[in-house]
Design a protein that fits this description.
The chain has helices at about 50-60, 75-85, 120-130, 135-145, 165-180, 200, 215, 275-285, 295-305; strands at about 5, 20-25, 65, 90-95, 110-115, 150-155, 185, 220-225, 225-230, 250, 255, 260-265, 265-270, 310. The mean pLDDT is about 90. It is globular, with a radius of gyration of 22 Å. It contains nine helices and 14 strands. The strands form three sheets. Strands 8-9-7-6-5-4-3-2-11-12 form a ten-stranded mixed β-sheet. By secondary structure, it is an alpha/beta fold. It starts with a strand and ends in an 8-residue tail after the last strand. Helix 1 links the parallel strand 2 (about 20-25) and strand 3. Helix 1 runs parallel beside helix 2 and helix 8 (about 275-285) runs antiparallel to helix 9 (about 295-305). The chain folds into two domains: about 5-265, TIM Barrel, CATH 3.20.20; about 270-305.
Length: about 325
């Protein structure tokens, strides 16, 4: 069977192989409607911070990026970052910025901080995330981070009726420069076709942007008005608005979850498969009169509880 091999610069094509993603906590204080973790798997066990660090060390990846949820809400964030630094890891974090001025701007151990701010008008960002950010404190926090040589990148998701044109992108870049950001990433929305903004179309296919990111590359870098910019497009495994690979080959990066275990890629909730053979057998027994509907209902409920394992997300390399 023919296998579709993605572009080598893609996450699923093997790029960023020396990175380890860590789902540090399911806790979050934002309300982004399109958050991919809404359908994510959330293990019941919460490992100690020491167990999580030990699992990170076993993976032996040079660059570690802390994600969530909102990773700055982890009660032992300082201990985790300091421990990893003492073991010679480069530690990065992606945050919604709500604790940037407090705990994050006074930690010297980060190699880089990605701040997810989805509009240069912070009132509109509040509409999107539910978080109140203050421009003065944001600028002050970035100034503090630069004193420890921490790189700061702004992450902006393109959302219909918000950042959705070339003009808005340029305004965002200008604002990011004023705030002191070192770089900016613009990303298309994943699994939200209604609010999707097509980067290739609004930028007239500049900077290598294209209609088939799986084959032509989903990850593009350039410099605009002196600002390093990364563009992240979604392929057909992440939006219905792009061609879907017929039989894609994907290279899954390991992801450490807050239960202290490593998984192949990000995990999704697994819904019970009501078409499996056992369910069909139960239904045939009802049709034949061998089971009452009440007995069948009880058996089906037991079948549904048997397999609660998560499934790997088929587009698992899209988190940073």
């Amino acid at each position: 069977m023919k296998v579709d091999v993605g572009h080598p610069d893609n996450f699923c094509g093997g790029n960023f192989s020396d990175w380890l993603e860590v789902n540090l906590t399911p806790a979050c204080n934002a309300k982004c409607s399109w958050c991919v973790e809404n359908a994510g798997w959330h293990p019941k066990k919460h490992a100690t911070w020491q167990e999580i660090c030990e699992e990170i060390i076993r993976n032996d990846r040079k660059n570690v990026i802390l994600l969530g949820g909102e990773p700055s809400l982890h009660p032992h964030l300082k201990e985790i970052v300091r421990y990893l630094n003492n073991h010679q890891f480069n530690v990065y974090i992606t945050t919604n910025g709500s604790r940037l001025y407090g705990i994050l701007s006074h930690m010297e151990e980060f190699a880089g901080i990605n701040v997810s701010i989805h509009h240069y008008d912070l009132e509109k960002n509040r509409e999107i995330t539910g978080l109140e950010l203050q421009q003065y404190y944001l600028h002050d926090a970035i100034t503090n981070l630069h004193q420890t040589e921490t790189q700061v990148r702004f992450n902006c998701n393109l959302i219909k009726n918000y950042i959705n044109s070339k003009e808005e992108i340029l305004r965002y870049i200008d604002w990011a420069k004023q705030m002191g950001a070192d770089s900016v990433r613009f990303a298309e929305l994943k699994n939200d076709d209604d609010s999707f903004v097509d980067l290739a179309k609004i930028l007239d296919y500049e900077h290598g942007l294209n209609d088939d990111p799986f084959n032509c590359g989903c990850n593009k870098n350039c410099v605009i008005d002196g600002m390093p910019v990364n563009f992240r497009q979604m392929c057909g495994m992440q939006t219905n608005l792009r061609p879907r690979p017929w039989n894609p080959r994907r290279i899954y990066k390991p992801v450490v979850y807050y239960d202290g275990k490593t998984y192949d890629g990000w995990q999704l909730k697994k819904e019970p498969d009501m078409n499996n053979e056992n369910i069909l057998r139960i239904l045939r027994n009802v049709a034949n009169g061998d089971l009452t509907p009440e007995e069948a209902s009880e058996l089906i409920e037991k079948e549904a509880k048997k397999d609660k394992s998560p499934v790997v997300e088929e587009s698992s390399h899209c988190r940073y």
